[in-house]
Design goal:
six-stranded parallel β-sheet, 336 residues, 3 domains, homodimer, 434 Repressor (Amino-terminal Domain), six-stranded mixed β-sheet, elongated, Rossmann fold, DNA-binding
Chain lengths: 336, 336
DNA sequence: CTGAAAGCGCTTACAG
DNA sequence: CTGAAAGCGCTTACAG
């Protein structure tokens, strides 16, 4: 390992100058900088991150926190964020909560993050009242992605969840559906996490706007994944309530619904229309109608926002309806 | 920020003793250790990672390198590995190559990794001859996951790719198929990356074992994702060659095939049977027959292997055929 | 624009 | 079992 002293000696300057020249600081003459760079290259030198961090007080890392890296939206956001962060010279520390409340608490309520990262990116992170205090005690810059709740002082990047849900619903209503079920998403507002609440609001608003009375029997909560979607759909069918379409809070839940419907011998869209939100990679493969949201773009914008100190406030990205084969006019309208 | 001196003062011992007590080193009396722990807890102390790293020479991080975190297999391996690593007290540094050759080279051929991580986990990482030298110059312990090629001195965790492909093929052949296409996977052996080569070998072996002469016109290369599967299937159809089944190198390619078949008005399995490898989360949703591989288990075992210095050699995990609705006997056997 | 020196907060021989 | 002191390899006021 060549150290900064080796480079300093080779270039005939002090270590302070090497440090400045290599980091591109302004107060170095061009000739000196060239000499230093040449020596550093020749010796294959790169500064020890550990030493830089200790001396400089910056860790050079950004913590990226996701609920489940295995879900489409999160992996897509992380991929984009990772690339942007590495391009900007940061290490990416991955924290995958895996649905564990314990992991969430440990991450937020210990000093672990502060000493490991210069900044934090919270993706779809539900926060309780006491979590806000913990987050602000981190004394770290941060950004939230796809979380309706703003952390004070942190910018946020997201879509309009109410609007996205309305787009899906208006499409279904436009096809003639009136009995539209809604599946998945914990809509309790205990957690300061408005995504699900907002999507539910969009569902209800669209119905009311069309003069359709919402029927609580058509709403089934559930986790936002395949299993949750399948279970919620199973529950819906078990209730024996009439419906001709399902609006799923996300595409993975919609895919779970597809599995459950198939299992019950129901065809999509002949017997039931199905729409989601996301535009998951695999949505085209199953012909799923959905409201597309720009996941990668949210990751990139979050990093941009995080790294430009002037950026503040909310970034709201657009969504758009993508019609595929999973939605059609109802064959027979079953008014319960 | 409370520092080690503060704890030392509070406990009435030296910083050396604090350091030893907190890290659980053996040469500390129980009473002293208790006193130190109590003081540390009371003051909310946790050691500065940067300082520990510089002084101790260990970074406390493990680099996890994947081609594309958005693909099912990789995100699943990473999720499991991340959990195991955090439980063991390591930071997880994520490197997502994103298919960029440049990213791969930069990662392997600069000292970047060595100074940032104590160990490396390479997941499905193709290595060229010159890469091996670079990897061993890292002078870091490591493990490879799902890469047929062993890095000298590094253990590996994987499945039997030849066997997995044979299981899928034997199922199709057992149903009566003889014209079986194979899609996706760069089978050139330029890269020391045997996964695709092995799966192709399984394809060929199964055919030969059943007395079927392989037809090169039935093989189409392509990337291992939706787009690749769709493109390869499009190419296959464009060739106008007769076939009754498709064996896809992975489930995502199979899903791409499904899209392309649907687009061409072909039904699965009535017109074409379709089988993959993986048992992707969404495979049940589309009724895909596949050979399941334990992705999370590979992530966990890789970490285990990495952290136990005695562990060596290859870990070979089992696969099993999972039959769903995408395969059936051919309606009419088209012998080209 | 450049350098000498202190300091970042730990860990680790070394000595006892 | 414990402590004093050196050292890990940088960065940063401070002085010039």
């Amino acid at each position: 390992m060549t150290r900064i002293d080796d480079v300093a000696r080779a270039a005939g300057v002090s270590t302070a100058t090497v440090s400045r020249a290599l980091r591109g600081l302004p107060m170095v003459s061009e000739t000196t900088r060239r000499r230093v760079l040449e020596a550093a290259t020749r010796l294959g030198y790169s500064a020890s991150p550990s030493a830089s961090r200790l001396a400089g007080g910056r860790t050079g890392g950004v913590a990226v926190v996701v609920p489940r890296i295995t879900r489409w939206f999160f992996s897509t956001v992380v991929e984009a964020a990772e690339q942007s962060l590495h391009e900007a010279g940061y290490d990416v520390l991955l924290f995958n909560l895996g649905g564990s409340e314990q992991a969430r608490l440990k991450l937020l309520h210990t000093g672990a993050l502060r000493q490991r990262a210069d900044a934090v990116m919270l993706i779809s992170m539900p926060l309780l009242a006491e979590d806000f205090a913990a987050v602000s005690q981190l004394e770290l810059p941060g950004v939230t992605v796809s979380s309706g709740t703003a952390v004070p002082g942190w910018p946020s990047v997201r879509i309009d969840d109410v609007g996205a849900a309305r787009k899906a619903m208006e499409h279904l209503i436009g096809l003639g559906h009136t009995r539209i079920a809604r599946i998945c998403g914990e809509s309790s507002d205990e957690l300061a996490f408005t995504t699900h609440v907002d999507r539910r609001r969009g569902y209800l608003e669209a119905l009311l706007h069309a003069g359709i009375t919402p029927d609580p029997a058509l709403e089934v909560e559930g986790s936002l994944d395949l299993a949750g979607g399948a279970a919620a759909t199973g529950e819906l069918l078990a209730r024996g309530v009439a419906f001709t379409a399902i609006f799923a809070t996300c595409d993975e839940a919609a895919m779970g619904a597809l599995t459950a419907l198939r299992r019950h011998g129901l065809r999509v869209p002949e017997d039931v229309s199905l729409a989601g939100i996301d535009d998951h990679d695999l949505a085209p493969a199953i012909g799923l109608t959905t409201v597309a949201q720009p996941a990668a773009e949210q990751g990139r914008r979050a990093v941009q926002t995080l790294l430009s100190p002037d950026a503040q406030g909310d970034v709201l990205l657009p969504t758009h309806l993508t019609v595929r084969e999973s939605t059609a006019a109802p064959a027979r309208t079953l008014d319960g």
